[in-house]
Amino acid sequence: MGDMFRSEQMSLCQLFIQPDAAYATIAELGESGCVQFRDLNEQVNAFHRKYVNEVRRCDDMERRLRYVENELRKDDIKMPELTAEQEPGAPNPREIIDLEAQLEKTENELREMSANGTSLNANFRHMHELKSVLENTEGFFSDHEAMNLDSNRITDPNDPNLANAQRGQLAFVAGVIKLERFFSFERMLWRISRGNIFLRRNDISGLCEDDETGRPVLKTVFVAFFQGEQLKQRIKKVCAGYHADVYPCPSSHAERVEMIKDVNTRLEDLKLVLNQSADHRSRVLSSASKHLARWSIMVKKMKAIYHILNYFNPDVTGKCLIGEGWVPNKDLPTVQQALSRGSKLSESSIPAFMNVISTKEQPPTYTRTNKFTNGFQNLIDSYGLASYREVNPGLYTCITFPFLFAVMFGDMGHGLILVAFASWLIYKEKQYAAIKEEIFNIFFGGRYIILLMGLFSLYTGLIYNDVFSKSMNIFGSGWQNTYNTSTVTDETNNYLQMRPKLNNFKTYPLGMDPVWQMADNKIIFLNTFKMKLSIIFGVLHMLFGICMSVVNFIHYRKYVSIFLEFLPQVVFLLLLFGYMVFMMFFKWAVYSDDTDDQALTPGCAPSILILFINMMLFGHQEPLPGCKEYMFEGQDTLQQIFVVIALLCIPVMLLGKPLYLMSKRPKHLPAPAQAPAAQPAGGHGGHGGEDDTTGELFIQQAIHTIEYVLSTVSHTASYLRLWALSLAHAQLSEVLWNMVFSKGFIFDNYLGCITIYIIFGAWAGLTVGILVLIEGLSAFLHTLRLHWVEFMSKFYEGAGYAFEPFSFKAILEDNGENN
Fold this sequence. Notes:
Elements: E1 10-17, H1 19-32, E2 36-38, H2 52-74, H3 93-136, H4 160-166, E3 171-178, H5 179-193, E4 198-203, E5 208-209, E6 216-217, E7 219-226, H6 229-241, E8 245-247, H7 253-309, E9 313-314, E10 321-328, H8 332-345, E11 353-357, H9 374-383, H10 394-408, H11 412-427, H12 429-432, H13 438-445, H14 447-464, H15 485-489, H16 500-503, H17 522-555, H18 559-590, H19 608-617, H20 635-663, H21 675-678, H22 688-718, H23 721-739, H24 750-791, H25 808-818
């Protein structure tokens, strides 16, 4: 936990690496994940950097890997997933050459098989369609007719003898077309021939593969009978326009039978070749799938290494690469060890070394977390990343966040549901960590937050004595009935009043007395209790936030801010709202039913809200007869003093720091005579910039002062959401019990068991869906707002930038999420 109090101390390091050992050294640094490298070649175009050719080689290998992966998806072959222990390291230069050759060989082989497979499939499809044409046109021809039909007859239009011989004879064109295009195709043929084409069709049974999309479609065989060579050319053009395949079809029955035999033989040969090609393709893909995951990781690591090497600058001699990067101080030995391992692996004669250099640049922010604290730190980082070495609210959020949530969600039953759900996620976290579903990962990432919220809800539910809107009588009620039987059974008595002096004989040891569950004024009592409790928690939470600013001031050595900012803010908050909290405790302690002084009885207890309003407005209110306006002697004078002191704190906050900074500035010497000529024109001459700086300082301090004074009131009122949501949650739970579950108890026979069984399902579903999920999400968001706005605004700047080290693990995880 100590690591979470502040971000890690960072050092800017300069690395000196020999070019021969650079690859192996960066690979070791990538495995350690401790260095955030800086780009020393920002002015150099990406295409002009030293290792641009190596990066292009990696891009080419990635392209080949994607091609192989797409081919695996087409054949539904899954790649085996590698565990963290099975992941390969970055390849050495010899492995790079072998890997590149293997990928090139695999890609070329798959491309050749894909091209051959496409050609073979097209031939098989055409042979199958030709067979369909020959079989389905059998009924279109008759050998007994006197006509001589030939689809392949070649005629010479200039030969009058042939023209006279063929006059009155018909020719035909046979082919296959998609069924959805046939009717438009038929109309087009009718138009171009003016009705002089006789068209017949026969649908092919089953689905055929589409040439364009590869999807199964319905197709039909057609035969168009016509007369004349010119009409034949028109028909073929229309077939080409409608993507209809035209096939040769003899008119003689014997020739068709012979042709069908030949086609069947060729189809059998094609099936054999296609099966052998598919087996060979499957073997190649299965072999590639075993190594593809390793190849992909190796290429990604190799590309990341060369990308980082492009950040380095060669020295003047060109015999050394110089790089810079941020390193956490605790990881400096790790980085030094990685440099030594890299030099040893590459057998470099000169070892790589590292120098820590001083800089005024703001380092990145890095907070070490584990699986427990990571969720809470993410809540803080969502608001803004902490400035370097700024106090980290994440450490305290681990307790304050689930506690304030539980104040609004105080029910032992609902808290137990959260604990059970979070415990299941934690028990199965190794199994569920591999799930990449977005909504599930939100709950899984916050499993420890949910666990603490549930545990704290169990505690607050015990204090509220609330379990699914019912109370538990663990220690025995501290109230007793002193009325006789006739008074209790008298129907004219609508209410029986119990006074603490007469009916209360002990204090309930822990939480609410269960007798309040039956009281008619339960809501009024709980309203007052929870409202005051929310103000108390709110003032303490804000006061803690203001005190955290002192830690920042001491660390950044802004000691003057302690006296000119922190002290006025604390005094302002304590004298107003801290005093209001004091009045709450004083009222609880002093006013009692067990007293002989009428002024100290509960009926004479003044309203704290009215007292506070009169305190701010310097007003008064007439008390009831026998009562006093104030709680103790001299309270009026004390309140006036508190208000005056609080108001005096405002000018201290507004003017104190700017005036102090102005007094500490060195006095300026008079400018030389020639200086005004060199000054640019401006309303303030040579002092314009200084006046602007002073003005900005006053304006900035004025904004902060106004914001703090106004937010002190608004933020205190904002904590009333603790009371409002707690009350709403309790009432919704009670409504669900009375309006749903209690209806199952109206039957006193065997039907009651069935009714309770059915109604319990509805009640349980509504409880989980409304009270746990929706109300829980509402309480979570309100708690988040209380931390972001009311608590963290008192001390948290959040102007840092994240430490993003060069890490193979992070690179592979990001690529996995993108995929």
